[in-house]
Amino acid sequence: MQVHLAQPRGFCAGVTRAIAIVERALAIYGAPIYVRHEIVHNRTVVEDLRRRGAVFVDDLADVPEGSTLVFSAHGVPKAVEREAEERKLRVFDATCPLVTKVHKEVGRWRREGRSIIMIGHAGHPEVEGTMGQVEDGIHLVEKAADVPKLPFTDADTIAYVTQTTISADDSRDVIEALRARYPHIQEPKRQDICYATQNRQEAVKTLALSGVDVVFVIGSSTSSNSNRLREVAERQGVHAYLVDSAAHVDPKWLEGVSAIGITAGASAPESLVQGIVEWLRENFGPIEVKTLPGEEENVAFPLPKGLWESDLQAARAATGGLARELAGLSVRPADGDQKA
């Protein structure tokens, strides 16, 4: 049996940073560390952090005054930021910097008097966070068929932004519909769909066309980017399944299969990929594993102040060492700041 691995796959820089923020907050400030919403949409990651002292909440009323709080990688509305400040919480913002870019676009355009169209999926935390950057003047569009329902005329000044984790193909259809109806619409200087989302979607297209009979996308059902990867694979004419881990693979899916493709959403750790590879080896005998060529990623995002390596070293000195080393996380201090 052949196993083809997509490249790139798994953790992106924003997810690596978000997990590192929770881990370092636990190391420096101790449990419990409260996290508003799941830090990233992956069951394995969330359960691991929960065992180590992270407490995930949807309502800040569940966070005791004066506690340490982390905002998830998806971002939060302005109202949540204000509530955290009023309740005197120590806050570390794990919002992906690429999501923050979209937040700034929304704020700037609204101050300029523009109405804003948000392309994304209703109910997703990133969409709620982005739309919550302003009190009014922002409209959600999920598909091209929604565009004719918009209330704007040629006399209105409008702009659009997109959820960073949606399908590039789907967003392209909506953007084309917006341009056709509103030729004057203001566009982002750089597209909002993140580099990691695009890279993984292109990689899964390559994977699906590499001669595999089936594709496994490792990711949780709540993960937008993982769901999009499954959809992209199926559009190439290959059966695709979204699974949390090897424990969720149905052997019936592999009847008559000689080549399997595996990828992982941006919030899924590489250990889950290797777990499926080992499960295949144990249940189907010798396998040939091949990593396909793809985009190399060398992006790293900075940690917030208070969570630098110097702070971690101080915590080590105070506690006599850490039970768990935070190795392998590609993070650095903020640009322009110096370590203490």
Structural commentary:
By secondary structure, the chain is of the alpha/beta class. 36% of the residues lie in helices and 16% in strands. The strands form 3 sheets. Strands 10-9-11-1-12 form a 5-stranded parallel β-sheet. Strands 3-2-4-5 form a 4-stranded parallel β-sheet. A 3-stranded parallel β-sheet has the order 7-6-8, sandwiched between helices. α5 links the parallel β6 and β7 (138-141). The chain is flat, with a radius of gyration of 21 Å.
How would you summarize what this structure contains?
This protein is α/β, with parallel strands linked by helices. It has helices at 13-29, 43-51, 78-86, 97-111, 125-131, 168-181, 195-208, 224-235, 270-284, 309-319, and strands at residues 2-5, 33-36, 54-57, 68-71, 90-93, 115-119, 138-141, 158-162, 214-218, 239-243, 259-264, 288-291.
Describe the main β-sheet briefly. 5 strands, parallel
**Looking across the biggest beta sheet, what order are the strands in?**
10-9-11-1-12
Oligomer category: single chain
Provide the low-confidence segments as ranges. 318-340
End-to-end separation = 53 Å
Mean pLDDT: 90
Category from helices, strands and their pairing:
alpha/beta
How many separate helices? 10
User: What is the element string, with H for helices and E for strands?
Assistant: EHEHEEHEHEHEEHHEHEEHEH
